[in-house]
Specification:
Blueprint (H helix, E strand, L loop, with lengths): L1 H6 L5 H4 L4 H29 L2 H18 L4 H4 L4
């Protein structure tokens, strides 16, 4: 019965970040994945709020710089039109 009670105990923060290297690296990777998903959500909502004409003006301003910096990349070169 004691083992069951011990198994249900909530681990502390110190317990979460201790242990073998593989376990810690897995926890770090899951945390980073969660932060990445949060960032994608925030950027997606921000893009919904921005006027499409403003995005178009921004891309028109950035396009010449990209073509000069990376002339051999076909995708950027095709943006000249």
């Amino acid at each position: 019965m004691q083992n069951l009670i011990r198994a249900r105990k909530t681990p502390s923060i110190r317990d979460l970040w201790s242990g073998p290297l593989l376990d810690r690296s897995f926890r770090v990777s899951i945390s980073l994945k969660g932060l990445h998903a949060l960032l994608e959500t925030i950027v997606g909502i921000a893009l919904l709020k921005i006027d499409p004409q403003m995005i178009n003006r921004f891309m028109s301003a950035v396009r010449p710089f990209c073509i000069k910096s990376f002339p051999k990349i076909r995708r950027i070169s095709s943006l000249r039109t």
